[in-house]
Prior knowledge:
alpha/beta; D-Maltodextrin-Binding Protein, domain 2; Alpha-Beta Plaits; 3 domains; five-stranded mixed β-sheet; 8 helices; 15 strands; 26% helix; flat; binds adenosine-5'-triphosphate; binds zinc ion
Amino acid sequence: xxxxxxxxxxxxxxxxxxxxxxxxxxxxxxxxxxxxxxxxxxxxxxxxxxxxxxxxxxxxxxxxxxxxxxxxxxxxxxxxxxxxxxxxxxxxxxxxxxxxxxxxxxxxxxxxxxxxxxxxxxxxxxxxxxxxxxxxxxxxxxxxxxxxxxxxxxxxxxxxxxxxxxxxxxxxxxxxxxxxxxxxxxxxxxxxxxxxxxxxxxxxxxxxxxxxxxxxxxxxxxxxxxxxxxxxxxxxxxxxxxxxxxxxxxxxxxxxxxxxxxxxxxxxxxxxxxxxxxxxxxxxxxx
Length: 287
Ligand code: ATP
Ligand code: ZN
């Protein structure tokens, strides 16, 4: 096996696929992802991409068939495979929750004692129940978990929820959240030194893409004597860039602003004398 390339496993088709491909492309790795392919070579980075079912990815990474994989933490944790979780990727956020029929009275996790619970996540459910000293009858099923209570197969379900609408449309209410998940990058524990170096390069690129997404480039015009005040609301980077304008006493100020602080601070920046504010997305940010 070639120890000088990274084989990266991603989901072939499903909720993780699009964002996984997008992330790899945003890291500047180019490859031909012709429809229906199971494997493709990157053209400008020593990597191969494998397209697999998400449930198979942790096992392939444990065995070293793939060196890296992108999966939901829910799948990785449930699989109990011996892999390293090297980075959280911030997409496919969801939770694993317990739901019961809407009309059923529910006062707490102890109400699940002795109940039948249908799930595709028996290990995570078992761990959760055990930590709350509850013993239930766990029915492992592979799909359409949410209909189990209405057809009398179980008293409750434990399933992936994002908005909660699937639970609601099946007459269920969400009563416990047992695990919060997002897509993660997992890695084999047996990388060669070259592969470890390639992984470090990839993580550096991923982090630069993630930081850029959380920040915006901001340009504004203001009177020179307002700079100090405005700068208080722009803590990004080391210090803002200030360029003189043709109009005497005015300047153009450039800085970076965090997405989360943007709306809160923009009004204060305006009140402090800023005009002609432009906010521009950043593609990559090296900090
Ligand atoms: P496969 O055919 O590869 O086995 P799957 O049907 O098991 O796919 P998907 O439904 O594509 O899996 O979900 C993949 C992952 O996406 C889940 O394991 C979870 O981490 C995440 N996910 C699932 N549902 C949602 C959702 N509603 N919103 C956001 N992320 C979700
Ligand atoms: Zn799956």
